[in-house]
Amino acid sequence: MTTPSRVPEPWGQGSGANLADILERVLDKGIVIAGDIRINLLDIELLTIKLRLIVASVDKAKEMGIDWWEDDPALSSRARHKELARENAELRERLAQLEPARAEEEAQ
Amino acid sequence: MTGLRYVYAVCRPFGTPLQAQLTGVAGDPPRLLHHHGLVAVVSHVPERDFAEGPLHRHLEDLDWLTATARAHQGVIDALTVVTTPLPLRMATVFRDDSGVRVMMEEREEAFRRTLDRLQGRVEWGVKVYAETESKDKETPAEKPASGRDYLRQRRMKVRSNEDLWQQAETFANRLHETLSTYAEDSRLHAPQNAALSGASGQNVLNAAYLVSRTESEEFVELVDRTKGEVPGMRVELTGPWAAYSFSGDPASGDPVSGDPTQKEDR
């Protein structure tokens, strides 16, 4: 029989928890037991990764050094592709900025 | 006896009844299944939603997933008020009560070990956000007058970002160090992205701490004192949670623990 002392109320009931807090615990943590209904655990793991990828800006994540999905062959090509596209866009932008300036300099 | 059995958690028997109006996933009130001195907290769920095929489809549906995750967490939360539950991962489903009993027998020893370890403890979540000037990013920067000007602007932007990250990292490391000494155990989770959490700023620390209930008040005060300590850094506290992040049993090689020392023979 357990009679735990109560925790101070103002912080009770997971207050301040956002959806990401709940999902990361309910989907990612908690003890893993194979039930009779087999859901491939990998499916859930891939799903959470997918969830993160859908909503995350890959650029921003990379900027912060979050690149753990790079190890996953199923996901790395996608991540690489996005990074290339971003770099490409940035180079184009830079080129567009540099060209008029150069033309100006040459005209002088 | 129709439907499947959805298991939320395993705990030791507890005296206080759960709140009467509590409903779990699929709207069914959680029931207590006593077996071998342990309790499985179980809901009856319909086959049309929780059999293999439908469950797979549902897991791809973010709305269903969200509602089910919230219902799951609601039950775990209610349990945390009256006892120390060992939370199971979402969507652990058995054919019938006897399937649940067999599972409890097979894992009895590990359950007891983990429940002993977690007894009287809760999990607190602490996140640190670096408040980036998000407006700055949306409004296009001043038009550079030349290529050199462009590069200079860019260099300054990169440098100020680097400073911010450096500062954020130092602050987050120091906070984690302090809280880890105070807590019995800690886990670092991947930083959350803003679109899912709805929080502003960049999440630079996302950690969980295992703290005894009796020391929780002090822990909360400790975290509160760091709020506003460094400008530009926002500290957020969530909890108390059931010890989700600490539910892995090292001795059984459970992947959650991240430290498989031996295989459970079953």
TrEMBL record, chain A:
GO terms for molecular function: structural molecule activity. GO terms for cellular component: gas vesicle; vesicle membrane. Its main location: other. Pfam families: Gas_vesicle (PF00741). The keyword Coiled coil applies. PROSITE patterns: GAS_VESICLE_A_1. Residues 74-108 form a coiled coil. It is found in: Gas vesicle. InterPro entries: Gas-vesicle_GvpA-like, GvpA, GvpA-like_CS. Keywords: Coiled coil, Gas vesicle. It comes from the Bacteria. Belongs to the gas vesicle GvpA family. This is Gas vesicle protein GvpJ. It comes from Streptomyces resistomycificus.
UniProtKB/TrEMBL annotation, chain B:
Residues 244-266 are annotated as: Disordered. It holds the Pfam family GvpL_GvpF. It is found in: Gas vesicle. Keywords: Gas vesicle. GO terms for biological process: gas vesicle organization. It comes from the Bacteria. GO terms for cellular component: gas vesicle. The keyword Signal does not apply. Belongs to the gas vesicle GvpF/GvpL family. This is Gas vesicle protein. It comes from Streptomyces resistomycificus.
